[in-house]
Fold this protein.
Amino acid sequence: MPDRKTGGPDAPPARARLGLAIRMVVSVALLAILIAKINLDSAVPQHRSTWTLAWFGLALASAGIGIVLSAWRWQRVIEAFGVHVRLRVLITHYFAGQFVGNVLPSTIGGDVLRVTRSAKNIGSTETAFAAVALERLTGFLALPLLCLVGFALEPSLLESSAAWVALLVSGIALAALGAILFLAGHPKAAGRFQGRDNWVRFLGAVHDGITRLRSDRRQVIGVLATAVIYQLSVIATVGFIVLTLDAGIPFGAVVAFVPVVAMAQVMPISLSGLGIREGMLVLLLNPLGVSSGRAVGIGLAWYASMLLVSLLGAPAFAVGHRTAAAPAESTST
C-alpha cells in the first residue's frame, strides 16, 4: 500500500510491524498444530542415499532458475510500458527482493524493495509499482491452467476426495483475478485515477499497464508464456523434492496440486506461507496415501529450498543502489 505521507509504495511502519508479528504468530501456530499431529520420522525417507542429496541439489538449481525466469517475466511486463531494463539488473533486484522477503523477513517486503529499486531504472515509481503488481497477477492466470493440465495427465485424481479443494481454489483464484483485472482495466474504475497526485495514482498506473497489454496481443502472449514457464520451474522444484523424500506421488498429482498450494500460500496471513503450505499439502496428499508427516516434510523442504536460494540475494541486497542506477531504454517507436 502506498505511504500516506510520501505517496510512495511503502506501508506505514507501525502497521507493517504489527502485520509481520501477526503473520509470524499464525505461522508458528499452524506449524505447531501440524507437527503435534504427525510422526516426525515419517517426514524423511527411511532409506537415504547419494540420490537423496542429488535430487535436493536439483531442486535448489530449479528454484534458482525459477528466480531468473521470474525476472524475465518481470522484464516482459516492464516492456509493455515501453521501457527496457537489462535482465541482469532485474535478476539482481529479484534476488535482493527474495532475500528480504524470505530470509530477513522485514516489514517492507520483497516486492516493495523491487518497486523501490526498479523505479530508479524505469524512471517512474508508478510504473515500477504497476509492473510488479501485473507480474504477480500473471501467475494467477498460469496456475489454474496448470492445475487443469495435471488433472488431464492423471484423470484418476478426480476421484480423490481432495479434487474439489483443488478445483475450488482454482475457481476462486480465477474469479478474483477476473474481478481485479476488470476493475483495474475499466476506465471508470482504476482508469479514473490516472494523473492523480496522491497514492491512487498507482492504481491508475496499473490501469495504464493493462490498457497497453490489451492493445498488443503479442505482448500478452509473451507475458503469459513466461508466466507458465516460471510456474513449470516451481513444479519441477517440488517434483525434485518429492523424489528427495521418496514420497511416491504421481507426476500428474504434482502438476495438479503444486499450483493449488502456490495459490493458497500467498494469502497474507502467515509468514512466507509457512503453515498454510504444509496444511494444504496434507489436505491434498493424504487421499493419495501420502502420510501427513511426509506431506509436511515436502512443504518444509520446499520452503528450505526457497530460503537457501534466497540467500544468494544477500550480496545484491547489501550492494543496494549501486546496481539500481543503470538507465532504462525506451522501446517506444
Observations:
- The first strand starts at residue 83 and ends at 84.
- The two ends are 33 Å apart (CA to CA).
- The first helix runs from residue 13 to 36.
